[in-house]
Amino acid sequence: DAGVTQSPTHLIKTRGQQVTLRCSPKSGHDTVSWYQQALGQGPQFIFQYYEEEERQRGNFPDRFSGHQFPNYSSELNVNALLLGDSALYLCASSAVGPTLGYTFGSGTRLTVV
Amino acid sequence: GEDVEQSLFLSVREGDSSVINCTYTDSSSTYLYWYKQEPGAGLQLLTYIFSNMDMKQDQRLTVLLNKKDKHLSLRIADTQTGDSAIYFCAERGTGGGADGLTFGKGTHLIIQP
To answer: Cβ–Cβ of B101/A58 closer than 8 Å?
Structure first.
């Protein structure tokens, strides 16, 4: 049973460019959340998607946007990249309801130069 | 706002017990979690506790929750070299399921031979 799959694993982009990160949730999960983990910090919540809509958003600018597809997979898009966007981006999936199971992927390491 | 605080480092001898502490500020937290992160990897859920519980034991892991003081601890019995990692405390609010996790900055557990 595959867990959460993220692609690519590593990415290098130039300031001002745009990037798209992808996530496939664990089988049976229909909710996807994205987190940003800067070096030496804990993960910070970006947003959560359920039924192809953004349900909740953390304290991130509009440059960060997302999408969820009918098969529950998700994309995170970041526009106008800044050096400070360099981080590990983690995707977590879960099922709706009183479940506790947030399963995290291994992340995409984004470096902005 | 919500905040989760942890000590940055803990050093223990192999075979001893490790106790990692965490304090949080959101009194409406419903679930509290402990995650483990090894170098270059994503987050692995170790254990969790409901906010109406005081203690939970799972093999070598014991979680204690003092809701009055908003203090959470994770005890790892018989600490092994494989336990060397960063441990994150995280809380989940009451957003009806549409709520991201708030993480601490993580505690680096260092095992001395």
So the answer is: no
